[in-house]
């Protein structure tokens, strides 16, 4: 068992604030992700749509990533409280799982973007709407995820960072860190390209499909928020990478802040998915619909009474 332990004199107060925000953010992300999954399973049972299964796959990836990040945040908070930099025997395992779930999560976002392209642009292709296509795509996703994951693990890319008390791919292992950032950039480029093409397609729909175009544009506004949430984690990591390449050093607390950015980005992404899903909105925001239905029924009843009254007067005359 490889144990490294260093006693540090003191830790700034904001370290505790940073760790606490990470814990709160990851708890919210986990709760929202699994509420979404359980709600869709309950509403779609026994026949599940391909689109909902793919979105559940994305939420599962975010939930698993947030779970490992939550464990890491609790471990970091404990070490900050004690003032001890300590690598336990499960640190490398947590870092390995976090790397796997990171790759799984970003490939899931690519799969979600592909599904949106399938639903909007290629909705008339029966091959793309079959469960066989879904199975092939998910198997392909996991195959890519495992291959990319092995490329990092087999090169010994996971290590302990004393500044953040976490095991992950440190920037000192430049090749592995750049490889991970390339995976992130490729995934974001794919997602952005797909949604830009969808936007171009929707804006050029004929006027006869104006209602459909309006509905898709509303959906794309939510997708824009989702993209912003996904870009947030990569901003600071990219800055740290460029700073390391050009100056050869970064502050020891950099990855604490970077991990907090990751938490905000992933939690914001799963909340955006939750709020923008039509079935979820109908399930948890019924009150407004019920009130509208009551008003419509009341208006119809009043109109019926007025018509009946007029008929009676005419019959008397």
Automatic annotation (TrEMBL):
Q: Which residues cross the membrane?
A: 20-41, 53-72, 92-114, 134-154, 182-203, 223-247, 253-276
Entry's SUPFAM superfamilies? Family A G protein-coupled receptor-like (SSF81321)
Q: Cellular component per GO?
A: membrane
Q: Which Gene3D superfamilies match?
A: Rhodopsin 7-helix transmembrane proteins
Keywords (alphabetical) are: Membrane, Transmembrane, Transmembrane helix
Q: Which PROSITE patterns match?
A: G_PROTEIN_RECEP_F1_2
Q: Where is the G-protein coupled receptors family 1 profile domain?
A: 25-276
Localisation per UniProt entry: Membrane
Name used for this protein in its record: G-protein coupled receptors family 1 profile domain-containing protein
């Amino acid at each position: 068992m490889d144990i490294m332990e260093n006693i540090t004199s003191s830790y700034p107060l904001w370290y505790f604030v940073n760790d606490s925000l990470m814990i709160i953010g990851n708890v919210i992300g986990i709760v929202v992700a699994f509420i979404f999954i359980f709600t869709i399973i309950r509403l779609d049972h026994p026949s599940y749509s391909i689109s909902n299964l793919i979105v559940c796959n994305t939420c599962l990836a975010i939930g698993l990533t947030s779970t490992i990040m939550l464990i890491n945040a609790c471990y970091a908070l404990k070490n900050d409280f004690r003032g001890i930099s300590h690598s336990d025997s499960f640190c490398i395992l947590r870092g390995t799982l976090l790397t796997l779930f990171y790759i799984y999560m970003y490939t899931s976002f690519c799969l979600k973007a592909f599904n949106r392209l399938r639903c909007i642009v290629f909705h008339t292709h029966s091959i793309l709407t079959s469960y066989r296509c879904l199975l092939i795509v998910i198997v392909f996703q996991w195959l890519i995820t495992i291959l990319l994951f092995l490329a990092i693990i087999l090169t010994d890319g996971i290590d302990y960072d004393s500044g953040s008390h976490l095991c992950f791919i440190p920037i000192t292992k430049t090749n592995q860190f750049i490889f991970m950032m390339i995976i992130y950039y490729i995934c974001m480029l794919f997602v952005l390209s797909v949604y830009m093409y969808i936007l171009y397609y929707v804006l050029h729909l004929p006027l006869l499909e104006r209602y459909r175009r309006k509905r898709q544009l509303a959906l794309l506004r939510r997708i824009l928020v989702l993209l912003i949430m996904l870009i947030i984690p990569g901003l600071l990591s990219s800055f740290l990478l460029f700073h390391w390449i050009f100056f050869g050093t970064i502050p020891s607390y950099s990855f604490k802040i970077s991990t907090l950015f990751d938490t905000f980005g992933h939690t914001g992404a799963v909340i955006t998915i939750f709020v923008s899903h039509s079935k979820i909105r109908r399930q948890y925001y019924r009150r407004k619909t019920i009130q509208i239905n009551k008003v419509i029924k009341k208006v119809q009843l009043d109109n019926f009474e007025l018509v009946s009254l007029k008929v009676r007067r005419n019959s008397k005359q």
